[in-house]
Amino acid sequence: MTSVLLKPLFFTYSGSSGAARTRSVCSSAFAGGLTHRMFQLKTDPLTGKSEWIVIEEEEGGNEKQTTPKALLATTSYLDMLNDTRRNTAYRLAIDKTVTKPCHVLDIGGGTGLLSMMAARAMGLYDSKWSSTSNGLVTACESYLPMVKLMKKVLRANGMDGRICVINKRSDELEVGLDIPSRANVLVSEILDSELLGEGLIPTLQHAHDKLLVENPQTVPYRATTYGQLVECTYLRELHDLVHREAEASDGIHLSPSGMTGLLGIKQQQFALHCDAIKDEIKLLSEPFKVFDFDFWRRPESSREIELQVRATDDGTVHAIISWWSLQLDSEGTIFYSTAPSWICCPSDVKELKTNSLCSWNWCDHWKQTVWFTPRSGLPVFKDEKAQLHAVHSETSISYKFKTYLDNKEAAQLDLQTRDCQIVLSPERNALYGDGAWRSLMLNAIEKALCQIVHPLCLVADDSIFLVIAVARLSNTSHVIPLFPGIGKKGANYLQTVAATNGYTMDRIQFLKKKDLLSNLQDSHQRKINLFVAEPFYYGNDSVLPWQNLRFWKERTLLDPILSKDMLIMPCRGLLKACAMCLPVSW
After folding, report:
1. Are strands 528-532 and 456-459 parallel, antiparallel or unpaired?
2. Which among 141, 219, 283, 580 has the fewest CB atoms less than 10 Å away?
3. Which 8-state DSSP code applies to residue 209?
4. Could you say which of 57, 58, 172, 198 is catalytic?
5. How many angstroms separate the CA atoms of 102 and 179, rounded?
6. Torsion on CA atoms 358, 360, 365, 368, rounded to nearest 10
7. Distances (CA, A) of 47 to 547, 549, 553
8. Count of CB atoms within 10 A of residue 34's CB?
9. Where does 82-223 have alpha helices with state H?
10. 8 Å CB contact between 182 and 101
11. How much is the pTM?
12. What is the rounded distance in angstroms from the CA atom of residue 138 to the CA atom of residue 20?
């Protein structure tokens, strides 16, 4: 089964009394005999169904643990720990900040690396250390398997007992109950590629309100987000379905004229390795600063800003590429940036000097982010100023060009189309606009339909493309879409685009799989003679190809209602692999 790691829920009960109770568990001091139950969500690739499984773990000195060894294998911790530039920057900043015994709080402790850096800077690693020392490092981590790993790491480094590990979210900590006093220093790394997506703002707000002294020292000290206007055909293909569909000119209209908001991608920042496409990118502006976030003071929940961005060349803005820079010390001498390789980053620290400061290590835990410009992009001319409105909430940053704020654009997605709007991933959106892919699929469907007099077609996945293709290419066909993911919204969508695509809804029948089996198993009913899928299951875009076995499973389960001479597409799959040398990811 494919493991999907979400925020775990914990249930703790006493082995002696058997009385169950629900709460988060503090792992700094447990009574013997406690058992932890962690609920982990797993998805079966054969059925697409998700279920919660229970993992039980005995606490205490007992090393007999039932946690699967592969539980952490799918995380990005190893990649992050191999980021030498990040580790060096944090070590230098912590050494500069923690210069005397104090209380250091590490929020989101992970493997314990930053906590150990703080303990060493304070002298807690010294052989002369005693439990009566004034210094204290507290690491809080909500994910139980990571807490257990952290304890092993601390033990291996001779630092167990010198760092207080608490298995709680930081907003569950209480001074006087979990920690003895407010902390003087905060170290943290609760950052994602967009900066805010892991809850940085609410975490800092609670920490300043409840856990930190007034005017604390923090590592990092400040974060700044930047953006740059770019033209790029590849990025355009990821979001501009309307114009790519017009270029394909094959008669299929997934995004009909006047209904451009009906099908598309979500307006958000998408993480992407922009260095991989730098040769395809035309820069249309200098980098511009968007927002500053100070860790040393309580942040605001939201802000907005109007930016005047001067174009440095003629072109079409297809996207805004964004990144962030951390100033780790208060003096402004130690920096870490997620900027692409064409951006030079500031640094006065000798240990961080390099010719290509922002590309020491290839890393996957932090990338740049891309915000797509609506439709085919915004035309700009050299020295012209683009009016950009930037907003941040507690968890995200968004952009909007003033050009797209007029009432016509805002009203285009009216109340009727909202009920049938389908949001796709950029990759799926790009595939639906790919003329070569569309031609291949249409040719295969047309060839299959030529062999069947009265097609009764079952579309086993969430492919709106295949439903429209079959209905349009054959006037005698009847189509049954299962739509296991998009459901009723898919039915509403097909009705909305029916006239544009030349079919009527009386040839499309919506049945759930259980109803399909009961209806078509009747001996007087026709059986399915065309069984198709891309396969595409809505919400499972991240599933690896060799794990996407659901189509195969569906075909097997529906065998009683399939005719003996049924045609199936795809009829065969071939998995290929090649050996590669990737030193940067090892």
Report:
1. parallel
2. 580
3. I
4. 198
5. 13
6. 30
7. 11, 8, 7
8. 17
9. 84-97, 113-122, 144-156, 200-206
10. no
11. 0.83
12. 29
Nearest to 71 by CA among 95, 48, 39: 39
Q: Which helix (H) or strand (E) holds 470?
A: helix 464-473
Nearest to 343 by CA among 374, 317, 322: 322
* 71: amino acid identity, one letter: L
**446 part of the active site:** no
Q: Which residue is listed with tokens 């396969």? A: 535
> Smallest Cα–Cα separation from 265: which of 234, 296, 295, 236?
236
Find out whether 339 and 358 touch, Cβ atoms under 8 Å. Answer: yes
Measured between alpha carbons, how far is 190 from 277 in angstroms, rounded to an integer?
28
Question: SS3 for 542?
Answer: coil
**Number of Cβ atoms within 10 Å of the Cβ of 442:** 19
Over the chain (586 residues), the average pLDDT of each successive run of 10 is 32 31 33 49 64 57 42 59 90 96 95 95 69 81 90 92 94 96 96 95 98 97 98 94 90 87 88 94 97 97 97 98 97 95 64 41 85 92 96 96 58 58 92 95 95 93 96 94 92 94 93 76 77 89 70 86 92 86 70
198 as an active site residue: the answer is: yes
Which uninterrupted H or E stretch holds 10?
strand 9-14
H/E run at residue 495: helix 487-501
Please tell me which residue in 59, 189, 245, 534 is annotated as part of the active site: 189
The answer to whether 399 touches 378, Cβ cutoff 8 Å, is: no
Q: Which residue type occupies 238?
A: L
HSE-CB of 491 using CA atoms within 13 angstroms: 13
Amino acid at the residue 170: S
